[in-house]
Structure prediction request, 118 residues.
Amino acid sequence: QVQLVESGGGLVQAGGSLRLSCEASGRFSTIKDMAWYRQVPGKQRELVASITRDGSTTYADFVKGRFTIARDNAKNTVSLQMNSLKFEDTAVYYCNVDEERLATITYWGQGTQVTVSS
Prediction:
């Protein structure tokens, strides 16, 4: 069982920066992919960025060049450095991880609010 807790969300002015962090805890096997998603009320949750255990990254087009995802396997954490924030980035951001077992298990954090003022 993996428990995920996000932190770092808040209110920031357009053009500013925030760093989100997610820590995995509990009893679990090897964590595979880790990712950040975001969701606006009334819309579907969308992938922001993902990272494999060996560090290979993938970014959504709307954050390329502005956001950076990173992980620390020793600490079981994943972060999302968000620079040049735009009003459109306002959303609830969710941490997502896949645990390697006989069948992969996916876990979600509770979400952290990011609000960008224009």
